[in-house]
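Bump. Still looking for Acetyl-coenzyme A transporter 1 structure tokens.
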Amino acid sequence: MSQKWMKTDFGFCTPRGQVDARNLNFRVAKQLQTRFFGYVFFWGWVFIVTTTLVLILKREVDMSIPSNNTTASGEPAPEDEELELGVVESYTVLYKIMKLKPVHYMIAILLTGKLAFAATDGMTSLKLIAMGIPKDRLASIAVFLTPMQILLPWMIGKWTAGPRPLNIFLLAFPYRIFIGGVFAALIWWTPHFQLPDGKFEYSVYFVWISGYMFHQLATYSMFVSMMAFIAQISDPRIGGTYMTMLNTLNNLGGNWPVTVVLAVTDWFTYKDCVVKGSKDVLYACNTKVLADQCAAGGDVCEVAIDGYFISVAACSVIGILWYKVFFNKLKYLQKIPRAQWRVFPSRAVAN
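Sorry for the wait, here they are.
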């Protein structure tokens, strides 16, 4: 495996393929499910049946290696050739990876970096649906974003395939925080353009499509940048195991903050029971029991303080602090010789 391959193809093709696969398997399937009810259900069963047949009929060959320096046949392992590891060996290697000092910093970055965007990413679409924007209209916005998502990795490939791919990540991070504030402003602005029949003017959809384009520009720049860096630092002899672990942590770092934010946002939301047709506040209706009581009396339980805006503000502040703390650390991680990321020492290392 040449150094040139490690620096270009490995740092470019991996994020390139992930972006295309993500669009094909998520965006396209989502559109088909919207138009053909049961599409995902059908292919879900196809997946279950095929994987079950593989489990029953397929027999794996033991390709595990007797040592770190030899192949299954006992011959010396070629330099940088990917090793065939058994289950026990794979987890042993994972443990060794976790012990590497640079990986400690990466784990902290991957698990906490997306907390800054949790409220925006996890709640904005839910707020739009609650306002009355149809789900299929919201899903259709993704169609306009797909060309940009496909072209973006090619556009920034020159930088992500180089020795400092995280520079794109660092540039996009504050921009994405700013977009979160823009989305909060748009959420406040959107209800003012709702028509009497509950629908929205086409200009509202145009504004949101434009907003999501700028949002995805930052999101995918960070995604491609991080994937390129992970591909570069992964030990080529255990590339699949190494990258899978870091990608799993990266995905986990994007999911747990959204779960937490969705759980706590109601704590920041305050509602008042208002006399229908007036602004007279009777009492707070923050619980379901009080909200039902308000509705039973013919009154309206209105949101006085929306927790969405508080959550976006809190996440943005956390993001600014995170950026200040980890900015130099991310710069430092790019400068670390690639040899320090490896579990198995190599004579020829791509720096």
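The two ends are 14 Å apart (CA to CA).

Edit: fixed formatting.
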